[in-house]
Amino acid sequence: MQHPLVSAIVLCYNQARYVVECLEGIKAQNYPNLELIINDDASGDDSAAVIQGWLFQNNIPYCFLKNETNVGICRSVNNAMKQAHGKYISGIAADDVWLPGKLRTQVEMLEKLPEKVGVVYSDALQMDENGRLLPDRFIATHRRFDTMPAGNIHNILWEDNFIPAMTTLIRRSCFERVGLYDETLFYEDWDMFLRIARCFDFAYSDEVSAKYRIVTTSAVRAHYGRLLEAMCGICLKHLREDNLDREARRLATLQLHSKALLCFEHQTPKHKRALLQALRYKVSAGVAAGCIFAWCGLGFDRYARTRAIFRGRSSN
Questions:
Q1: Beta bridge partner(s), residue 65
Q2: 148-198 confidence digits (pLDDT tens)
Q3: Which phi and psi angles does 175 have, rounded to 5°?
C-alpha cells in the first residue's frame, strides 16, 4: 500500500487535562506519512504549555498554532486547514482519542474507492470526563439505523446530524470543491457535512475508530442555547442558497421549525427572531402559535399545554 500524506488536525481549548491522551492516540497510529497540526485557541489553562512539552519529548513533524485571542472553533480549524498539505484530512478535539489503526484502515478504504466518495466515517465509543466508557456508542445516542447510511446521505443528514466528526477521514478535494468552514457559525460539523454531501458520497467503516469524551464544560454543551440558534442559522443558510432539491428543502424547513421551537423552549436570547424566520419559510400552526405566545411574553410551558389541549380535541 502507498501511504499518502494525512493531515491530523487537533483543536484545543482549555483541555490541558486531556490533550496528552489525545496526542498519544495520534502517535499510536504508527502511520508513516503524517503531519500533525495543533491549534490552541487561547486557552486559559496550561494547555499550550502541556502541548509544547509533549512535542518536545516526541519526534513528530508538527505545526503548533497558538491564537492570541479566542476566535472559536470554525476560524481555528480554518487556520489549521491552511497549514495542511495532506491528501486526506482528519480532525479531532483535544479531549477525544483515536483508537489504534484508525488512519491506516480509513486511508486503505478511500484509496480503493472512487473519487466520488469523499468521506469515510465510523461509530465511536463514548466516555465520561474521567475516561470511563459509557454503555451507548455515539451514533445510537443520536439516531437508530438498521443499516448504516452510505452513498448519497444528504437528505439523511437533514433529518439530523449523526456522524461523530472525530471518526471521519476526508479527501482534501472535498474542501477544494466546497470551501473551508463557515466562520460566521458557532460550530462546524453539520454545515460542512451537508455541503460535502451535496457533491460527494460517504462511506461507512464498521471498525470503531475513536473515543468521544462527554465533557459538561465543552463549548457545545456549555452553550446549548447558542448551539440551537446556530442550527437555525445553518438551516436558513442552506434554504437561502436556494439550491436544495424539493425533498431536501422540505427536510431543511422541518429542521428549522423544530430548532426554532427548541429555541423558544430553552428561552435562547434570539428565540423570537428564530420563530419569525422559521415562519417566513413556511407557515405552520405550531410555529405560528409559538410566535404569538413568545411575543406576548407567555412561556413555552403554557404554549405546550395549549397545543396539547387542541391536539386532544382534534383527535376526538
A1: 39
A2: 999 999 999 999 899 999 999 999 999 999 999 999 988 779 999 999 999
A3: -70, -35
Hey, what domains does the chain have and what are their CATH numbers? 6-216 (3.90.550.10), 223-315 (no CATH)
> What would the DSSP string read from start to end of 127-161?
E-TTSPBPSS-TGGGT---SS---BS-HHHHHH--
Amino acid letter for position 191? D
Residue 191 and residue 162: Cα distance in Å, rounded?
Answer: 12
Q: What is the CA radius of gyration of the chain?
A: 21
Of 187, 160, 182, which Cα lies nearest the Cα of 241? 182
Q: What is d(CA 172, CA 188) in angstroms, rounded to the nearest whole number?
A: 17
CA–CA separation, 289 and 295 (whole Å): 10
> Residue 121 and residue 17: Cα distance in Å, rounded?
27
Contact criterion met (CB below 8 Å) for 164 and 96: no
DSSP class of residue 99?
P
Predicted TM-score (pTM) of this structure: 0.93
Distance of CA 294 to the CA centre of its chain: 29
Task: Identify whether the C-beta of residue 175 lies closer than 8 Å to the C-beta of residue 94.
Answer: no
Are 292 and 272 contacting, i.e. CB atoms less than 8 angstroms apart?
no
Tell me how many degrees the CA angle 14-182-197 measures, rounded to the nearest 5: 110
Could you report the per-residue pLDDT of 78-111, keeping only the tens digit for each? Answer: 999 999 999 999 999 999 999 999 999 999 999 9
From residue 144, alpha-carbon distances to 53, 166, 228 in Å are 42, 19, 22
At 233, list the grid cell. Answer: 442559522
232, 256 Cβ separation under 8 angstroms: yes
**Dihedral, CA of residue 161, residue 162, residue 163 and residue 165, to nearest 10:** 70
Report the DSSP beta bridge partners of residue 119: 170, 202
C-alpha cell at 265: 423552549
Q: What are the helix and strand counts (H, E) for the chain?
A: 13, 10
